[in-house]
Structure prediction request, 444 residues.
Amino acid sequence: MTLSSVAQPLPLWQQLQATGVALAAVAQGVSASAALLRVPSALRSGVQSLLFASLRNWGRAHALRGILAQRKPPPEVDSLLCVALALSWLPEQAPYEPFTLVNQAVEAAKRSPKMKAQATFVNACLRRFLRERDALVAVTNKDLQASWNHPVWWIELLQHDHPNHWQQILRADLVPAPMVMRVNVRRIERSALAAQWLALGIMAHPVGPYGLMLVNPLPVDRIPGFAQGLCSVQDGGAQLAAPLLLGALPDHGKHRRILDACAAPGGKSAHLLELSDAQVVSLDIDEVRCERITGNLQRLGLSAQVVAADALKVNDWWDGQAFDAILLDAPCTASGIVRRHPDVVWLRRASDVAQLGKLQQSLLHTLWPLLKPGGVMLYCTCSVFRREGQAQVKSFLQHNTQAHGLPCVGHLLPQNSNNNGGVTDNLPSDHDGFFYALLQKPLD
Ligand SMILES: C[S@@+](CC[C@H](N)C(=O)[O-])C[C@H]1O[C@@H](n2cnc3c(N)ncnc32)[C@H](O)[C@@H]1O
Prediction:
């Protein structure tokens, strides 16, 4: 693990304490990004690294904690123990010496009014772990959730959906994703931006037609050209959406009217506008996230009609003019972007897959009539589950016999250097998991 916290001057116990609090919040159903907003800003970047590493090893940590403390301790103690175990169970990947992590975790307990009384217990559990690590880890190897650091229902669903690739997907999920930028080709050519960066010592490799992958990730405010709208952060898999939809339209979408039905924070709307002269309506149910669409488009020098409304309540927002194309980037489990959001696996429940499936089906059925004859809809989700991809489209086509599927990339599974080449239905290179389907309405 390469953690920015290594350079932090703040004491490690303080970071571990804050990481434990953030992990306890995720255990209560709070997203990692919301939990991190509660962390004092001086600690945040170090805590983010420790929290993400803990989430990627939470299944293992949970199993180890179960052996060391058979009666579940209070939530804050449980989380602190899990943080220490998650970070130290695999010494070759540990961000600090396991011995240091244990000492500092005990210090974190001693210095917390809530955990002080349990500091001796924390110390006893973690010292035993240091003494018996190999044997304890061997016991947890029999536990599916511990071995793969994903919930059992998730693993079983992947085994069902991807019998030949489930292991590659799980392995890819546990490796942090690289930072990929999308070049705003309306403003600058990719090679020119890469050359500017190189002159400043920032190395990047091309990904797909518009992407640049940074060799070393940087905060966006330190990426030259970001504030000036020359680029945006977007995974290589997500960068396929706009070219796929525009490529299916006559004249590459020129003067066409396109609905981006679930648009916030505006990544795909912006890409549509960078690549075409289409008029884009960017709709999202979440008013606050709509402000992010507007902000992102402003930074990039682009404009769309941004509408905050529920796409399912068509009478509230639609002017009755049919669209030439619709991009439906539907709300989903986000099971394809675990590399970037390691909290997702622990926040989701098995029942979410069916519930989100129903919402995706309603969105497809509700928005289809808004498409002109001859128009095209791109349905996509950042999910690896078939229920949110192939099965959804198959069922839609069964109920809409006039719709037909156009050739498309289909299901992209998360890919990195660990499983590169191991997944046959993938594009080469590094990307998150996505499903894409192009649906065309026949001319009357
Ligand atoms: C996968 S995200 C979209 C990402 C976006 N397309 C991008 O590339 O930046 C899904 C979005 O759907 C929105 N959403 C969920 N239900 C909706 C609904 N009924 N109507 C409109 N938007 C909805 C969510 O607020 C969320 O912003």
Residues 70 and 168 are 33 Å apart (CA to CA).
